[in-house]
Amino acid sequence: MLGSSLALSAQAQEQGLPLWEVGLFAGALSSPAYPASSERSTRALVLPTLVYRGEVFRSDRGGVGARLLHTDDTELDIGFAASLPASSQDIPARQGMSDLGTLIEFGPRLKGTLARPTPGSRLRYELPLRTVLEINNGVRTQGFAMEPELSYEVRDVGAGWSLSTNASLVLGDSRLNQYFYGVPADLATPQRPAYTAQAGLIATRLTLNASRRLGPDVRVFAYVRAESYAGSANAASPLYQQSTGTSAGLGLHWTLSRSAAKAEN
Length: 265
Prior knowledge:
Layout: E1 20-32, E2 40-53, E3 57-60, E4 63-70, E5 74-83, E6 102-115, E7 121-135, E8 139-146, E9 149-154, E10 161-172, H1 174-181, E11 200-213, E12 218-228, E13 244-258
Antiparallel strand pairs: 1-2, 1-13, 2-3, 3-4, 4-5, 5-6, 6-7, 7-8, 7-9, 8-10, 9-10, 10-11, 11-12, 12-13
Main location: membrane
Organism: Rhodoferax saidenbachensis
Pfam families: MipA
C-alpha cells in the first residue's frame, strides 16, 4: 500500500514458467517521505530475489503471499507489502518526533480479471486489507490499511515493452493515520499544534508501470506515480504539507538460476 513498486504485475499464464528463479535486483526510487509530506525520501537498493510459483505459496511479480483460492478470473491470497523508513531529522515538520520506521503490511487480498479487451491485455481489480507493522527499535502494530485498485495491463505494446496503469484509493484507520499525521500534546510546538488523526482517505494514486526484457535473464522496470491528497481525512494536520505528490523508480533484475521443473499454474 505505502511502498513503491518497480515490478510490473505478472500478466502471462504461468504454465511453462520455471517453478523457481533466483536473482538479483538493483534499483533506485524517490517518493514523498510520507503521504502529503513536502520532503522526499530517495533510496538505492540492491536485493536478492526469489520467485516461487507454487500451488499455494508464491513469490512473483504480483507480490509475496499464500494463495487460498484460484480460478481463471478470481484469486484470494494473503499478500505482503513494504515501505521504506524516513528520518524525522530530515523532515522539518517532524523535528523532535519519532522517526518513521520500515512498514511491513500483510493481509487478505481479493483480485480478479474484469475483462480481456484483446488477447494481450486485461482489466483487473484488487481489494486488499492489510495489517501494518512498523519495524523501528522493535515491532509495533500501526493499524490497518486498504487500497482498492483498478488496473489495465498490456503485455506487448511494441519493442518488447509491457505496460500497466493503475488507479487506487489509499485509506487508513485512525491508528495508521495517527502514525502519519498525529501530533501528541507533549510534542506540540507553536508551529505544530497538537492533533489527533481520524480514519479515512490518505491518497488517490495514478501509477504507470513499464517493463522490458533485455535478454533471457535480464529485465528492466520503471514506474511513475502521481498522488493527490485532496479530500484527505487529515488535511487539517500540521504534518499535512501539500495536496499533490509524485514518485518514480527504475530497476534492473538479473536472473542467476532457475529450476528445470515448471510451474503448473
